[in-house]
Amino acid sequence: MPDATAASFLHSLSAAWHPTYANALLVAAILMMALQRARPPAPHLVRNTLIFTALCGLFILGAGVSAWLGYSETAELLDDLGVLTLGLLVIRLAGLTLFRVGLPAFNLLPPRILEDILTVVAYIVWGLVRLRYAGLDLGSLVATSAVITAILAFAMQDTLGNILGGIALQLDDSIHIGDWIKVDDVSGRVVEVHWRHTAVRTRNGEVVVLPNSLLMKSKFTIVSREDTPQWRRWVYFSVGLETPPQRVIAAVEKAVGDAAIALVSRNPAPSCVIMEFREGVGLYALRYWLTDALADDPTDSSVRVHIYAALQREGWRFVPPSMDVRLTTETDERANRQRERELALRRKTLRRIELFDQLSDEELAYVAESLTYAQFARGDVITRQGAVAHWLYVLIHGEADVWFEVEGHPRRHLTSLPEGKVFGERGMMTGEPRRATVTARTDAECYRIDKKSFEKIMQSRPELAEAFAQILTERDKQLVAVKQERISVDHAQQQARLLASIRKFFRLEHS
Question: CATH 2.60.120.10 residue ranges in the chain?
Answer without folding.
Answer: 334-505
